[in-house]
């Protein structure tokens, strides 16, 4: 059984939950068919290849798996729009999927993108990236790792109808991080997308509840996410 990967696809609240397992060869298997009448189905994506090596390369590899799921969904029903929600490394796979497939008009448009604890410009394991500063006026980080450089073209290509919500944590223990992701690494998403996104919003979760793995088991995060995705 494939282990859980840290993103889900949210199509348009939420009586229908489905699971999509993706093999190492990109074969997608759903636990059941998605009914045509399903309202706001959630698709939880699980990758068999969930220990991808090669920090930078793995993001593009995971992005291809995500594309495989979207294509498999299209074979069941045509969705004009989808919502994408990621946590941790799943965020990098999502953003690279958008970056790599931005010109593929056959894929549904991303209406809402939710990033939870995304390490867009490095993690705490990269000491040289721990002291990244964010320009308060432009949002531009003063240091960029190689995977971040690859994403810079989103400043010119991100679809303008995509609304972005960035949620990150600060333990407030002096580390300026959620334990894994520096605050400024998460905030660096702003520079990539805010100039083109339909809207861009950030929420910082402070204290113990802002710990990396607790962010996707957090009542405040859940409320904010539901409000962003489904409240008119």
TrEMBL record:
Keyword entries, A-Z: Hydrolase
SUPFAM superfamilies from the UniProt entry: alpha/beta-Hydrolases
Organism domain of life: Bacteria
GO MF annotation: an example: hydrolase activity
Record protein name field: Alpha/beta hydrolase
Source organism per UniProt: Candidatus Limosilactobacillus merdigallinarum
